[in-house]
């Protein structure tokens, strides 16, 4: 043996093997499956084209195989009748007339014990490509016949293990829509999310932290140089708690920064109910996720070619969103939060028409602002009910019982940094 300075277990094995005279022959890892069978997961063999079916494709063999099927006896009796024009013996093989203009004029009748082989050949084989029901059925019906073929093909394709594992689900996801009820007051329930990583701006920022109020739809954004825990905690304290008060509920994803000890301590100190979205289901924080898309679209309209000024544009597009009327509520987020509409730069150029600010008028303004919030809540509930009825009309409920076999969706993650944290 040629081993330089062995130690430990290798040294002990070297000493023991030196007692024997042997020749070392290289064997590939595939030939050593018996040595580590307990530590390796079994690998299923690839589906092969059925040799059993290919062996009976000759006229003589197919005729013999038909004789083995007792269910074809009735069809053979029909074929012997002079009045029967549907079935006929051709070269000793029972055939059925093809009433479809496509395909052969006469189709051989396949016995029951060979039908599974045909299904595998026309669906599982590499030349079949694991295609869907329509293409698989079309290939078979043009070549063969047996009673109940349509039902057999449907069942086989639906229960194909590889198709279930690898193909995306074509139908809509099951279940009913469960809308998130609107909050009862401004900043009672908020959603927070991180957006990025963006190209490094001229000010060194790479991330955007977003907060949306579920009552007024009001949005707060801030550009951040990093997505560290201290930046998140600082934003939550200075931009939310110290400006709008402590919210009762905060909804975030399951990112590490939101589950950190610092953020958890701040949340506990303010007695806030911190709720996390479920895995692979961002709709739990749907309002914030929808605003993220709107914000990205707005930024893309004004960012420069080098994409380094996005953090300078961020406050302007956020203001534009907050001062735009929401279709769901019927009001602007700015009005629902402050009880008045925002003055723009154009408004300041126009003549100012002051209102009579007496005690009664101030009371009316406050009452009108609260009435607007309640009306916005009613509008939101109506819109949610409309969306729920439209969604439920196209989706079905599904129920699972203990012991049912189900598939778990595990999406393929791309290598590298994720777009959202």
Written description of the protein model:
By secondary structure, this protein is an alpha/beta fold. Helices cover 39% and strands 10% of the residues. It has helices at residues 8-17, 51-54, 59-68, 73-80, 112-123, 133-141, 149-158, 161-166, 229-244, 261-269, 286-302, 310-322, 333-338, 359-392, and strands spanning 87-90, 93-97, 106-108, 189-195, 207-213, 219-224, 249-252, 273-276. Helix 11 packs across helix 12 (310-322). The longest helix is centred in the last third of the chain and has 34 residues, at 359-392. The model is unreliable at 45-49 (pLDDT under 50). It is an enzyme of class 2 (transferase). One of its GO terms (biological process) is DNA integration. InterPro entries: Integrase_cat-core, Integrase_H2C2, Retrovirus_Pol_polyprotein, RNaseH-like_sf, RNaseH_sf.
Provide keyphrases for this structure.
single chain; 421 residues; alpha/beta; 5-stranded mixed β-sheet; 3-stranded antiparallel β-sheet; 14 helices; 8 strands; flat
Major beta sheet summary: 5 strands, mixed
Mean pLDDT: 79
Strand order of the largest sheet: 6-5-4-7-8
The number of distinct helices, counting runs of at least 4 residues, comes to 14
Radius of gyration: 35 Å
Question: Strand-residue fraction?
Answer: 5-15%
Topology order in helix (H) and strand (E) letters? HHHHEEEHHHHEEEHEHEHHHH
Portion in helices: 25-40%
Catalogue the unreliable spans.
45-49
In total, how many beta strands?
8
Which class best fits the helix and strand makeup?
Answer: alpha/beta
Choose one word for the global shape: flat
Terminal Cα separation, in Å? 53 Å
């Amino acid at each position: 043996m040629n081993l330089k300075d062995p130690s430990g277990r290798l040294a002990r094995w070297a000493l023991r093997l030196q007692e024997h005279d042997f020749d070392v022959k290289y064997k590939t890892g595939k030939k050593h499956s018996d040595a580590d069978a307990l530590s390796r997961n079994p690998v299923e063999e690839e589906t092969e084209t059925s040799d059993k079916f290919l062996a009976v494709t000759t006229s003589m063999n197919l005729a013999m195989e038909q004789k083995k099927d007792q269910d074809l006896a009735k069809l053979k009796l029909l074929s012997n009748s002079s009045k029967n024009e549907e079935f006929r013996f051709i070269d000793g093989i029972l055939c059925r007339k093809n009433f479809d203009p496509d395909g052969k004029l006469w189709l051989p009748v396949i016995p029951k014990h060979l039908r599974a082989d045909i299904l595998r050949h026309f669906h599982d084989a590499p030349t079949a490509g694991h295609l869907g029901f329509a293409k698989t059925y079309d290939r078979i019906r043009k070549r063969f016949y047996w009673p109940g073929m349509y039902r057999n093909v449907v069942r086989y394709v639906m229960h194909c293990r590889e198709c279930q594992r690898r193909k995306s689900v074509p139908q809509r996801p099951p279940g009913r829509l469960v809308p998130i009820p609107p909050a009862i007051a401004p900043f009672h329930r908020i959603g927070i999310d991180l957006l990025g990583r963006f190209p490094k701006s001229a000010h060194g920022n790479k991330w955007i932290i977003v907060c949306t109020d579920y009552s007024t739809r009001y949005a707060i954004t801030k550009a951040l140089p990093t997505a560290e825990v201290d930046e998140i905690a600082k934003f939550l304290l200075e931009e939310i708690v110290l400006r709008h008060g402590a919210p009762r509920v905060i909804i975030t994803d399951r990112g590490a920064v939101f589950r950190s000890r610092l953020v958890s301590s701040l949340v506990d100190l303010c007695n806030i109910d911190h709720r996390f979205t479920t895995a692979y289901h961002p709709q739990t924080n749907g309002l914030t996720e929808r605003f993220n898309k709107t914000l990205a679209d707005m930024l893309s309209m004004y960012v420069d070619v080098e994409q380094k000024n996005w953090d300078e544009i961020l406050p302007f597009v956020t203001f534009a969103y907050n001062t735009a009327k929401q279709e769901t509520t019927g009001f602007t987020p700015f009005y629902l939060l402050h009880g008045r509409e925002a003055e723009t730069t154009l408004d300041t150029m126009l003549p100012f028409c002051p209102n009579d600010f007496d005690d009664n008028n101030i009371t009316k303004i406050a009452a009108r602002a609260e009435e607007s919030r309640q009306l916005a809540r009613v509008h939101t509930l109506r819109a949610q009910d409309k969306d729920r009825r439209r969604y439920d009309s196209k989706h079905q409920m599904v129920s699972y019982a203990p012991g049912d076999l189900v598939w778990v969706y595990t999406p393929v993650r791309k290598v590298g940094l994720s777009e959202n944290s």
